[in-house]
Amino acid sequence: MLRFFTVLIFTVFLAISFNSCRKLQNFIPEDIAKQAIMQTLEYSADTADEQSQNDVLMNASASTKIAFPQSDLISVSVLNKFPTGTAALTVVETSINTESNKLSKDLNVFIDDATIELIFDDVYNMVYTDDAVATAYLNEQKSEQLKRDFTTYLAQKIRGSQLESSIIDFQNSYNSYNGPAVLTQDPATYLAEKIIERYFYLMSLEEVKIRTDKSHQRSDVLQQVFGDN
Prior knowledge:
Layout: H1 2-27, H2 30-52, H3 55-59, H4 76-79, H5 87-103, H6 107-116, H7 123-127, H8 133-158, H9 162-178, H10 187-212, H11 220-226
């Protein structure tokens, strides 16, 4: 009997989902649904762009604050051998976050270009959910390209800068006190990865708000497609 009711409930759920998707297709043209997804990504990226440059906001959470490269390999006992102790790491991490927040604004162009290139197989399935599936799809399709292109850009941008020097100097100092050279991460590669990762995280938060909160539906298209959520 329990199995019967479980199957019945699951069947009803599928029927509701199917009918909802059919209803969506009947009342919202495919081009409008695609516009909604594209606008969702555009507005989510704009929000991520603004937030990622906010020092106070980005330093307030472990989800957005950028740690020193290979920080999981850093030993306190080795740090204590530094003349300034653990304060040396704090100074470098502060510089990393301050400069990374400034560099985040340069990522927006790369995100916009990647978004324009997207091809959707079934845009209706991307509409009928409250999850950040559009951001996840962009991440899945374009993250490797973004990392490659943005790393190349950052390598040129920070070459010879105080930021690059502070990271490399700390790595060299730590390795000299440690013995084996364990800190070897390339600054541009690491920063590109972490800035992109944080950007997608911020986009995903905003996408959920666009889908579920009318105050974040900033266009007629978004209100038409997500207005009843």
